[in-house]
């Protein structure tokens, strides 16, 4: 299946992120006005506005009424409200990233897994257990579950790379996610996998990723050791008619 062609909004958004990553646009800088941006990319104002809205929602830009749009955060500052490349996060923190494949198997989905992915109960999954490392030290244990019907033997041959990149090659690009974060204690199994004492604190992230059509395409669980890199969470304030 062919990959989805990026839209004009995607292209403008990615170009702006590229300027921010390269340092051409720095935190606090004001972006050019809409007319200049339209001429630069040869697109409509609606396209520019949608790209801006996407970047504002992701916490990269901030719009000040009557003043303009400003850079709020660099893409090099990784955030929990964006899809994460843990290898990039580890590298940004000054460490050498790596991935160890622990297990890969195709099996029947459990009742809970089928419900989370909104699949028939007789569905099959590709289940992948991996450890992300920083300078060869374990920092994240992940368990990823993909519907078998999405898996291409060629695209998914090497499980030491980005799952998102593999999914893009078969046309199922994750575009949004819903995650639950829970502090947990290390049990005996996680202690051995992550080389930390039993009872040590970990951050557990339970996440469902959705494609552009809103279809659940990936169910992930991750257990994070918390002393290698920070995870940022951007929060937006919604004002209500509240006297307090």
UniProtKB/TrEMBL annotation:
PROSITE patterns: HTH_GNTR
SMART domains from the UniProt entry: HTH_GNTR, UTRA
Superkingdom of this protein's organism: Bacteria
Domain HTH gntR-type residues, every copy: 6-74
GO molecular function: DNA binding; DNA-binding transcription factor activity
Biological-process GO terms, alphabetical: negative regulation of DNA-templated transcription
Keyword Transcription regulation: yes
Positions in coiled-coil regions: none
Keyword line: DNA-binding, Transcription, Transcription regulation
Protein name: GntR family transcriptional regulator
Organism the protein comes from: Mycolicibacterium helvum
């Amino acid at each position: 299946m062919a990959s989805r062609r990026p839209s004009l909004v995607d292209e403008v958004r990615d170009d702006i992120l590229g300027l921010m990553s390269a340092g051409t646009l720095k935190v606090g800088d004001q972006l050019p006005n809409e007319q200049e941006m339209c001429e630069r990319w040869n697109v409509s104002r609606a396209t520019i506005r949608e790209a801006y809205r996407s970047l504002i929602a992701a916490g990269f830009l901030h719009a000040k009424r009557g003043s303009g749009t400003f850079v709020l955060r660099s893409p090099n500052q990784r955030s929990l409200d964006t899809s994460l490349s843990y290898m990039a996060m580890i590298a940004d923190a000054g460490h050498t990233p790596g991935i160890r494949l622990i297990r890969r198997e195709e099996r029947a989905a459990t009742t809970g897994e089928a419900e989370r992915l909104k699949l028939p109960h007789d569905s099959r999954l590709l289940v992948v257990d991996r450890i992300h490392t920083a300078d060869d030290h374990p920092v994240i244990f992940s368990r990823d579950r993909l519907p078998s019907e999405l898996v291409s033997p060629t695209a998914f041959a090497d499980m030491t790379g980005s799952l998102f990149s593999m999914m893009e090659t078969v046309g199922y690009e994750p575009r949004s996610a819903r995650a639950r974060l829970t502090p947990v204690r290390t049990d005996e199994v996680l202690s051995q996998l992550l080389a930390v004492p039993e009872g040590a604190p970990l951050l557990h992230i339970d996440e469902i990723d959705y494609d552009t059509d809103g279809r659940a395409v990936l169910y992930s669980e991750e257990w994070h050791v918390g002393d290698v890199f920070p995870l940022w969470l951007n929060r937006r304030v919604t004002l209500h008619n509240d006297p307090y």
